[in-house]
Amino acid sequence: MNSAVCFVVSYAINAAWQVPLLATVGFAASQILRRWGPQAQHVAWVATFLISLSTPALAALRALLPLAISWGYISANSGASVAMAGTGAGHAIPAGTVLLPSTVVWLVFDLYAFALAWFAVRLLRSVKGTKSLMRRSAPLRPAAAGEEIWGQVRRAFAVADARLFSSESVAGIATTGVRRPAIILPADFASRWAADDLLSALGHELAHVRRHDYAKNLLYETAGLLTAFHPVSWMVKAQIARTREMACDAMVVESLLDRKRYRQSLLRLAERMMSPGRVATNALGLFDANILKERIMMMKLKRTIPNRLVRITMAGGATLLLLATVIGSTAFAKGVAERATEQTTSPNKVYQIGPDVTAPVLDFAPDPEFPKSAMKEPRGFGVICVVGVVVNRHGLPEDVHVVQSAGKSFDAEAIKGVRRYRFKPALRHGDPVAVAINIEVNFKKY
Questions:
Q1: CA 319 to CA 65: how far, in whole Å?
Q2: How many contiguous H segments (helices) and E segments (strands) does the chain have?
Q3: Nearest to 208 by CA among 187, 184, 228
């Protein structure tokens, strides 16, 4: 089977349990950073999201690795060593790989591909909706009072390239644009709102522009397609949106309005701007996260930023918690490989090490003798003899023969030594089978 299919299936299976685990740890990390403020919590959730996308791939990569034959070296008192290698074009099963029937592998792959396509279409539809909204919007030049507020907000956030638009299609204010950010206002918005309300709305949206939130959100939505099938991934993205809105609130309070005036403005804006039937877009709105009550409560709290040492401790603790979870979950993650449809094992057949045949394990390897005829060779002298052997179903060597000669005397000693080896037999679907391997005998005089 195509190794790319196994990679995808392994990614989906590992994501199914790793995403909830990492989300739980991400929640704990965000709680550790809570005293630091919403921006620190936002960073924790973004890190959790990105880690949850990449961690399942670490184990999935095993499905793409070619058969790595384990080389075990055994020191010999006589100055010789041996190493075992598989033969044939097969590949060994990497550690942590699960064999699944072909039908199961393809079923999981098809379901994952369908989910990926479904959410990709939804994302493209929202992007198309945003472009359509921009086409229906007209450039806006605020009246004198509104223009003064617009200038004040742009100076506060050091944003000079943002543009104002007006549209009949929106009930609330929205921000879009990657290179040239645009703020879209409802028709007659600037002329029918009080100064504080206009300052709050424009300030919050320019905070998004200052933070490049639209571009980041588009990146998260695109990358998030990998785990969009998982409901917990939706929750993580909701937490990113939640903390993003709170971080923008904090920027407005720090730069433009005091907490009380900003809270009152949000309540007034919410009464008139939150309406059903919004066009599907990926633009950022003032009330996108639907957490107005929580935002109001957060602004009522008097927050004391911890000192530098406490911040370093909190950041270090959150980072270590996430890293430990990544390492631990990766250790338990599994790669996926296709199990052959043939289930019967022939007692007389000699198999090759491959996806459904494990390598035999060297259990007893007496030291090969260094030939007496070569004892006069100087120190540092060494040769390698490669011996082919069939390890039968009982772990005994058969058909021992030289594959790569090192000289008559060395070949004889290598064959004599390999015939005395004992193995734990190779397994196919749990049954012992005979396999052909090569044994590398390394003679070296010390």
A1: 30
A2: 11, 16
A3: 184
For residue 428, the cross-strand partners are 357, 431
**Collapsing DSSP states into helix, strand and coil, what is residue 350?**
strand
Angle at 237 between CA 231 and CA 238, to 5 degrees: 90
Amino acid at 46: V
Give the chain's mean pLDDT: 81
CA–CA separation, 310 and 302 (whole Å): 18
Alpha helices in 291-439 (DSSP H): 292-300, 308-332, 408-418
- 3-class secondary-structure state, position 264: helix
pTM: 0.69
Share of residues in the chain with pLDDT > 70 (%): 80
- The token duo for 166 is 């007006």
Closest listed residue to residue 401, CA positions, set 71, 87, 91, 89: 87
Per-residue pLDDT reduced to its tens digit, 271-287:
766 554 444 555 665 55
E strands of 205-286, at which residues? Answer: 284-285
Structure-block tokens of residue 142: 């605020």
Which residue from 390, 356, 385, 358 is spatially nearest to 369, judged by alpha carbons?
385
Task: Indicate if the alpha-carbon torsion angle 278, 281, 285, 287 is positive or negative.
Answer: positive
Contact call for residues 241 and 213 (beta carbons, < 8 A): no
Q: Are strands 80-86 and 74-75 parallel, antiparallel or unpaired?
A: antiparallel
**Burial group, residue 410, by CB count within 10 angstroms (0-12, 13-18, 19+):** buried
* φ, ψ for residue 406, nearest 5 deg: -120, 10
The two beta strands, 422-424 and 426-428, are unpaired
Cα dihedral sign, 414-419-421-424 = positive
Could you tell me which of 120, 326, 121 has the C-alpha nearest to residue 226?
Answer: 120
- Which stretch of DSSP H or E encloses residue 335? strand 335-339
For residue 224, which of 207, 241, 209, 212 has the smallest C-alpha distance?
Answer: 241
pLDDT tens by residue, 361-384:
888 888 788 888 877 777 767 788
Residue 437 is given by DSSP the state: E
Under a CB-based contact definition with an 8 Å cutoff, are residues 354 and 437 in contact?
no
Q: For the chain, which domains are there?
A: 347-444 (3.30.2420.10)
Q: What is the spatial distance between Cα 10 and Cα 109, in angstroms, rounded to a whole number?
A: 9
The CB density around residue 115, as the number of other CB atoms within 10 Å, is 16
Please give the Cα distance from 283 to 288 (Å, whole number): 9
